[in-house]
Amino acid sequence: MSSETIENKTFDEIQVGDTASIVRTLKPEDIQLFAVMSGDINPAHVDPEYARSTMFHEVIAHGMWGGALISTVLGTLYPGPGTIYINQTLKFMRPVTLGDIITVSVTVTGKFEHNHHVTLECKCVNQDGRTVIAGAAEVIAPAEKVRRPKVDLPEVHISDRKARYAHLLERAAGLAPVPMAFVHPCDAAVLRAALAAGAAGLVVPILVGPVAKIRAAAEEAGADLTGLAIVDTPHSAASAERAVAMARQGHVRALMKGSLPGRELMDAMNLPQVALRTARTLSHVSVLDVPTYPRLLLITDALINVEPRLEAKRGIVQNAIDFAHLLGIVDPKVAVLASVETVMPGLRATLDAAALCKMAERGQITGGVLDGPLAFDNAVSMVAAKAKGILSAVAGRADILVVPDVESGTMLVKQLEYLGDAISAGVVLGAAVPIVLPSRADSLESRVASCALAALLAHSPHLHPMLPPLPGPDVTSPMSSPTSA
């Protein structure tokens, strides 16, 4: 039979003892598609956090996913088109987990001339040779020969972008709005973000920049600035310095870059009289909701540290772990990325990865589970990890990806955004206040989601102990004498 056609076996051609089989690997999208099709959203299948608390300790396939594969063999391969299901029994013996390779086979055990019924033994066996599903089927075998061209199925992508965006904002739900300085907000995109984040109850926007330019940008955006505080400055450098000073004095508790170079804002942070640096490493973390990945993915550092050495990477990892805890990720799994998964003297990323893992073993990095070096596919795909024989608590289920340098990190984040339909947000960690440094191309939802991360971080004083705790939710004016819009 041609691989381009589908052909059946008629009742007369079927013999007792005949067998047929297919092989399938369970992927995250298989579980998602089955849940959408069936409506079965049992958290054991679709909620990794809940699944960790079950007896299986990880997400498992719906039992009838395997049952459906038996139907696939009967309906498309043996006997094939024209087969009519009469009866099916199934016994579920073991769970099927992500990356498992399942061989689904049927074997003819009997045929009955008077009604063209055929009975078959059915089995699903995993890559370890263990039976996960066993049962028996009874069908009416086709009487006429069928040979047809195979129908190409459409590609299916599952993504509820609105729900995923709301899920990111929920991280800061219930927290009091955080006074946030939008630094030199002289373009429409920044003003829309300020208003949207304010409307969402995440922040109290304070605009720091030239009043005339801000109002011109507001007119262009059709934005109403009524009630917003504006702190007038003559130019971008002054905007950065004034905003940093306001943070140092506790008037604002977060910063977002507007229409000025990110370097200008970061340079203002280092001025001796208003420095916002702490003892922690300064690093950036991107938080991505990727529709093809079953958990939030944190990528660090794709912005601040260009080519970090080992000690800087230690601080980058610790920052990311501590932030993951704020997101509710217990014992986050940290994959230290390199181009290969073996330690090679000529590749510094692999040496640093091995050293970071040893640091974690010795308590120099705490709160997470590290493994590395891991290539990207091994870090996020259990199928790839199993194919390469990698046994790891991190491989295939990473929460945090630590990239070798800013170039690889930036490319990875942008690829996931533009080719993987990821919703992303990001925040700078390690300063006295959280800082958001959006790209000019960032969407409104990305900017607002970043404000949610900043708000969450601002309510966690143990991560920036230089400032006093935030006031309660009854505080509405973070400044004593703002210039009103």
The CATH homologous superfamily of the domain at 279-430: Isopropylmalate Dehydrogenase
Helix content: 25-40%
Total count of helical runs of at least 4 residues: 15
Question: Strand-residue fraction?
Answer: 15-25%
Question: Would you tell me the overall average pLDDT?
Answer: 89
Note the overall shape: elongated
Number of E-type strands? 19
CATH topology of the domain at 279-430: Isopropylmalate Dehydrogenase
Category by helix and strand content: alpha/beta
Through-space gap between termini: 75 Å
Question: What's the Cα radius of gyration?
Answer: 28 Å
Profile the largest sheet. Answer: 6 strands, mixed
CATH architect. name of the domain at 279-430: 3-Layer(aba) Sandwich
Weakly predicted, low-confidence segments: 471-485
Give the strand line-up of the largest sheet: 18-11-8-9-10-19
Broad CATH class of the domain at 279-430: Alpha Beta
Model description:
This protein has helices at residues 28-38, 43-46, 48-51, 63-76, 161-169, 188-199, 211-221, 236-248, 262-269, 310-326, 348-361, 376-380, 382-387, 406-418, 444-458; strands spanning 5-7, 19-25, 84-92, 101-112, 117-125, 131-140, 147-149, 178-183, 203-209, 229-232, 254-257, 283-289, 297-300, 333-337, 369-374, 400-402, 423-429, 435-436, 483-484. The protein is of the alpha/beta class. Among the domains are: 5-144, Roll (Thiol Ester Dehydrase, Chain A), CATH 3.10.129; 279-430, Isopropylmalate Dehydrogenase, CATH 3.40.718. Strand 9 (203-209), helix 7 (211-221) and strand 10 form a beta-alpha-beta unit. The chain is elongated, with a radius of gyration of 28 Å. 43% of the residues are buried. Residues 471-485 have low confidence and may be disordered.
